[in-house]
Specification:
By secondary structure, this protein is α+β, with helices and mostly antiparallel strands. It has helices at residues 27-33, 40-46, 77-84, 103-119, 205-227, 246-253, 291-296; strands spanning 3-7, 11-19, 53-58, 88-97, 122-125, 130-132, 180-183, 194-200, 235-239, 241-244, 267-275, 278-282. Helix 5 (205-227) crosses helix 6 (246-253).
């Protein structure tokens, strides 16, 4: 059985930033005085430690470029421009053991949310490079689909640059182009390599995105199970063949509400190392055809072709 071995860091770093017209100098005091959301006790308990540090930065002290922060959604473009042009920032940094995840990154993002709420500021994830616009405080349940991966579709088809035919109208359009390359930007904060899928035709970009999402969720689930065994090694070996199912796709969204019209079946992807920190996702080795033939085939679970966004199941009400 073919395998891949990749390095596993003992700690990872994640950073969030808040841009506002005026950032207070006493950010620690602000976080103590504004109890927002279920992570307030964790925030106050970690402040000042490597697991949670907050700093006030301006254009004379920045070691990162606010202009590189982008809008993942059209409705975030104004916020992105405001963030790009800001001159004062609060930066939240979490340097934590991977065994502290996902709690460590949830606490850090909750702290950034608290600062944004108190200052009327705009949040950004400096790992994904995207603006964050949470509508509510950080939820206690971890859902990977909660903007942790930087998983967005490229604008190739929307802006008219791609002329690939729709396979529904022209079956030969299954392989109409190879424009799309999608890559995660967020798995590294959990101690995993990032993953990418490439040479995808524009008409299949959503299916490819959902394959990437499903693969990421399965890798993370298996990774946390491996970490729970308390391994001493700083490398991990996994099989190149990964079996995925509808349940992995649902787990990405934290949802069980989608009812498939046919019994869900497992499907396989093949992983291969591009760099020590990046794996590629492709059809299984025994698939006879291109990646676009595979994405257009009926081997993927329902939902992979049409779900761009979903909402997690609500938490059960207290008795």
């Amino acid at each position: 059985m073919a395998t891949i071995t990749f390095p596993v860091p003992s700690t990872t770093t994640t950073r969030f930033a808040v841009a506002a017209e005026s950032i207070p100098h006493d950010l620690v005091g602000l976080l103590h005085e504004h109890p927002t959301g279920p992570f307030h006790a964790h925030i106050t308990g970690r402040l000042g430690s490597p697991q949670l540090q907050v700093t006030r930065e301006d254009l004379t002290t920045l070691c990162w470029d606010p202009g590189r922060i982008k809008a993942a959604r059209l409705e975030d473009r104004h916020a992105a421009r405001t963030f790009n042009n800001a001159s004062e920032f609060a930066v939240v940094t979490a340097f934590a053991p991977i065994t502290d995840q996902p709690r460590g990154v949830q606490v850090a993002r909750s702290a950034a949310h608290t600062i944004a709420e108190a200052t009327g500021g705009i949040m950004a994830d400096l790992v994904t490079g995207h603006i964050l616009t949470p509508s509510a405080p950080e939820r206690t349940r971890f859902v990977l689909g909660d903007h942790w991966l930087g998983d967005v579709l490229p604008p190739s088809r929307a802006n008219g640059h791609c002329t690939a035919p729709d396979p529904e109208m022209d079956p030969e359009g299954v392989n109409g182009c190879a424009c799309v390359r999608l890559q995660t930007r967020g798995l590294r904060r959990f101690g995993l390599p990032e993953i990418q899928i490439s040479e995808v035709a524009c008409p299949h970009d959503l299916a490819a995105l959902n394959v990437l999402r499903t693969t990421a969720r399965r890798l993370l689930t298996d990774h946390w199970s491996w970490l729970a065994t308390g391994p001493a090694a700083r490398t991990r070996t996994i099989a190149t063949d990964l079996q995925l199912a509808q349940g992995d796709f649902n787990d990405f969204w934290g949802s069980t509400r989608r009812t498939p019209l046919t019994p869900p079946t497992a499907f396989h992807v093949a992983l291969s190392p591009r760099t020590p920190r990046l794996l590629t996702v492709a059809p299984p080795a025994d698939f006879d055809g291109t990646i676009n033939d595979w994405l257009w085939d009926d081997t993927l679970p329902l939902g992979m072709y049409d779900v761009l966004q979903a909402h997690p199941d609500p938490l059960p009400s207290a008795a």
